[in-house]
Design a protein that fits this description.
Length: about 500
């Protein structure tokens, strides 16, 4: 009988009331590994009620106690990350080394959250007026909702919930229904670390569950990561219901290669950033913009490296795994015919790949298009698969204009040995995260993650100082302790004297 994955509410597995389910596949075999429950609005209500009940006690728990639990969670996660990596590989398909990399980047945010007592400190100004002091407090919001995508089932939730919880909030996480087990595993681990029941809950589901969170009167904030159309919808709906919202969307990331670049370094970077995690990364490089005259040489170097990539079951030590579902694989593969129709050169066709895995897996090998037109859907769409496009330009200025014309602004990179050119690029490019000879410039946890334009709705980035600000509300207190010399009536607006 196929296993059914339950929600995690109040510190334990919970079946709730809805019996709707969705299949969860092992993408390397194509088999249904389990089914996941899909919550109804009533199930979301129940989870929010549990979180609301847990919030006051957690908010009032001392910082010292909260930090002890966060430290224990960090230790357990670090010790047992191999178990989590296996879950990621089994449901997402990414290879083990990549799964461990994802967890390490998530752990980084847990470690950052360990600084919460310092990071959430207020400020104090003494005697701003005679006998009057002003100080600020950072207080938790209450119940916060987190809605995450399939491509980082551990790291993206970890961008948010460690900070939300360490700051004293209660959380309802709605992970992707395509690879939901990592969320339950992390919730169980947090309980083992000593987190009180109800502070961190997982509700599985689809649009119905998401919509219930977006409009719920007891949910104070929404952190969302996913595709651009859904991010826009989340931002608009949750904002209209009075919530604080950060909604990170899709991407189309360009890598600009100047003629003076180290072309071996650039080719390595393009292959790593284009095909790692089968291109299912919001910071994947999907377009290499080659400034002539180096395009022929760069394409040859990329093609040569691609021929050495081993595609297969992530458990078998391959370089690249399958795509998340059959439908997604077919959609990504459909761009290969489209590229040819639109006049691009199909240099490597991933449909011909040799796979170290079962034939029924959702495979597509690394694919390379050259001379892609900016009018082609291949260029305009976020394909989100192992597909790299080359666009040839005559100058830095032409490349920059192309990047700045994109409706997305998540990540970009420049490859050059010219510091002046790199500095000019970092100043002129209209993108939120920039790499200089670094292809996937995901900022470390002490900075913040987020793009510009259609890659982020709302102005609050994830983690770092922005994350602390997002999950806390500042309160300014003006205080005067009674001094007999300050009596009397005065209806004027308060002034400093
Ligand atoms: P998605 O938008 O399909 O799903 C994201 C979440 O939204 C899931 O939890 C899903 O259940 C929910 N959802 C889906 N359709 C919905 C609807 N109609 N109404 C309400 N909720 C809905 O994204 P995905 O396919 O899971 O993930 C890939 C996308 O996420 C890519 O576009 C990628 O670029 C983006 N992404 C962005 C970042 C970033 O930081 N900017 C990071 C990771 C992924």
């Amino acid at each position: 009988m196929t296993i059914v994955l339950n929600h995690w509410i109040g510190g334990a597995e919970s079946a709730a009331t809805s019996t709707r389910t969705a299949p969860v596949y092992n993408p390397a075999t194509g088999a249904v590994a389990k089914n996941v429950l899909l919550a109804s609005a009533a199930d979301v209500d129940a989870a929010v009620a549990v979180a609301s009940a847990a919030f006051p006690g957690w908010r009032d728990t001392s910082q010292a106690r909260r930090q002890t639990i966060m430290f224990a969670f960090r230790e357990l996660l670090n010790e047992r990350k191999g178990e989590l990596a296996n879950i990621l590989t089994a449901e997402h398909g990414k290879v083990t080394s990549d799964a461990l990399g994802e967890i390490t980047r998530g752990l980084e945010v847990v470690e950052f959250a360990l600084g919460m007592p310092h990071l959430s400190k207020g400020e104090y100004s003494e005697n701003v007026s005679t006998g009057v002091d002003v100080y600020t407090l950072r207080q938790p919001l209450g119940v916060v909702g987190i809605i995450s995508p399939f491509n980082f089932p551990a790291m993206v939730p970890l961008w948010f919930f460690p900070l939300a919880v360490a700051a004293g909030n209660a959380v309802v996480l709605k992970p992707s229904e395509k690879d939901p087990s990592a969320a339950n595993w992390m919730a169980a681990l947090f309980t083992e670390a000593g987190l009180p029941d109800g502070v961190f809950n997982v509700v599985h589901g689809d649009k119905e569950a998401v919509d219930a969170l977006l409009v719920h009167p007891d949910v104070q904030a929404i952190s969302f990561v996913g595709s651009t159309p859904i991010a826009r919808y989340i931002y608009e709906t949750a904002s209209a219901h009075g919530k604080r919202v950060q909604a990170l969307g899709g991407a189309k990331n360009h890598m600009l290669v100047l003629p003076d670049a180290d072309l071996d370094l650039a080719a390595d970077a393009a292959v790593n950033a284009g095909f790692g995690s089968a291109g299912e990364r919001c910071m994947a490089i999907s377009v290499v913009v080659a400034v002539e005259p180096v395009a022929d040489e760069l394409v040859a170097k990329i093609t040569e490296r691609m021929s050495g990539l081993r595609v297969g079951d992530g458990m078998r030590g391959c370089d690249m795994g399958p795509l998340i579902t059959e439908a997604h694989r077919d959609k990504v593969a459909s761009y290969i015919d489209l590229a040819a129709t639109d006049g691009a050169d199909v240099v490597v066709d991933g449909r011909n790949v040799d796979v170290d895995g079962e034939a029924s897996g959702f495979w597509l090998g690394p694919t390379l298009f050259d001379r892609v037109s900016v009018e082609s859907k291949v260029y305009m769409d976020e394909i989100f698969g192992p597909v790299l496009s080359i666009i040839r330009v005559a100058s830095y200025a032409e490349g920059l204009a192309l990047i700045n014309a994109s409706p997305y602004g998540n990540g970009t990179a420049i490859f050059t040995n010219d510091g002046g050119a790199a500095r000019r690029f970092q100043n002129e490019v209209q993108v939120g995260m920039v790499g200089i000879n670094v292809p996937i410039p995901v900022p470390v946890a002490s900075h913040s993650f987020g793009g510009w334009k259609n890659s982020l709705f709302g102005d609050a980035k994830a983690y770092g100082a922005a994350g602390i600000a997002f999950f806390t509300r500042e309160k300014a207190v003006t205080s005067r302790w009674l001094d007999p010399s300050h009596g009397g009536i005065n209806l004027g607006f308060p002034q400093h004297d």
